[in-house]
Amino acid sequence: MGAHGAGTTGCLFSLLIFVALLYYGVNIGEVFFRYYRLLDEMDSQARLASALDNGTIQRRLAAAVQDIGLPDSAARVVVRRNTSPRQVIIETAYSETVTLPFFNHTFAFHPTSTQPL
What we know:
The protein is an alpha+beta fold and 117 residues long. The protein has two helices and five strands; from the N terminus they run ααβββββ. It is 52% helix and 26% strand. The strands form two sheets. It has a three-stranded antiparallel β-sheet with strand order 1-2-5, covered by helices on one side. Strands 3-4 form a two-stranded antiparallel sheet. It is elongated.
């Protein structure tokens, strides 16, 4: 009977570890998911840049930042157009802090999208 109890305890401990990893993974993963959503939106705007002015791109990305739920600093988007080579560069920078039990970290992001014009 003692061996059965030890097996149950080991199983519960394994389950606890799994749930903790899942909890941390989901909370940290959300930060990266939001980053990739913004990067995807920046890529879309960069592809359309030849038909759009910089102000329109900045307004669309500012709206996307709010929609995604990113910090306001992410809405400070810089749009540059180079003539040689002909390309558009869209970039911003922001950080997000994740506070969890036994874990407190600030992730800094600098998403950039470059497309030929």
